[in-house]
Amino acid sequence: KNEVEQSPQNLTAQEGEFITINCSYSVGISALHWLQQHPGGGIVSLFMLSSGKKKHGRLIATINIQEKHSSLHITASHPRDSAVYICAVPMYSGGGADGLTFGKGTHLIIQP
Amino acid sequence: DSGVTQTPKHLITATGQRVTLRCSPRSGDLSVYWYQQSLDQGLQFLIQYYNGEERAKGNILERFSAQQFPDLHSELNLSSLELGDSALYFCASSVAVSSYNEQFFGPGTRLTVL
What's chain B's average pLDDT? Predict the structure, then answer.
């Protein structure tokens, strides 16, 4: 069964700073999810990636399958980016029917 | 808006009671997942249905059960409720059965057991 570690747990930064959140997992997988949870509780899927890099606006996600590691970057951070960012991978590596196992999340605060 | 709906938004009930949470997936999605988020355990996978059939089970208690109906909406039934069942319950949907597909989350149901 996969285990997920995220770092840092908490991050406070100033507006405009470049942000990096890291995720490591224990069992080889072919897809990893980055999620954003707003203070109100809603969860939004940011990325699902299986190799290389994906970019959406100011968000960039990278994954290294061999090293079992992924990073989420935020460029030109803004107070509206304040949220909890959660990394998730399939519980098992088979690629079939399966749920996700989640990291504990990174609580990000961007100060103006 | 993810296109996934959940009702009710909030539910307050007493220990020992039974409740039903409802989820409607995005149009065209056949998979429905149920997740529980509590302060001490974080997000945990409960169960997955695909096109009406149970396909994967996670940390779901025997007091909990779920089903997916022919119109693809799903219900999560929680019985003999305990204080520790207080949590946010999310459903998510995806187009296919594999967890290698993007999942779209509903707004959640906040359950409080008193």
Answer: 95
Tokens 């967890």 belong to B99
Please list the residues that pair with B52 across neighbouring strands. none
What's the pLDDT at A91? 84
- Predicted local confidence at residue A94, as pLDDT: 63
Q: What is the mean pLDDT of the segment spanning B47-51?
A: 95
Confidence of residue A98 (pLDDT cuts 50, 70, 90): confident
Q: Is B2 within 8 Å of B67 (Cβ atoms)?
A: no
Residue B27 pLDDT exceeds 80: yes
Tell me whether residues A43 and B33 touch, CB distance under 8 A. Answer: no
Instruction: Please give the Cα distance from A55 to A72 (Å, whole number).
Output: 10
Chain A residue with minimum CA distance to B32 = A99
Write the CA distances from B49 to A37, B39, B84, B92, integer angstroms. Answer: 24, 26, 25, 11
3-state helix vs strand vs coil in chain B, percent to 5: 5, 55, 45
Q: Is A30 on the interface with B (CB under 8 A)?
A: yes
Give the C-alpha separation, B77 to B19, whole Å.
Answer: 6
Q: Do A102 and B43 touch (CB under 8 A)?
A: yes
Please report, for residues A13, B38, B48, the alpha-carbon distance to residue B45 in angstroms, rounded to integers and kept in the order given: 31, 12, 8
B109-113 and B10-13 as β-strands: parallel, antiparallel, unpaired?
Answer: parallel
Strand A106-111, strand A10-14: pairing: parallel
* Per-residue model confidence (pLDDT) at position A45: 94
φ, ψ for residue B95, nearest 5 deg: -75, -30
Q: Are A32 and A100 in contact (CB under 8 A)?
A: no
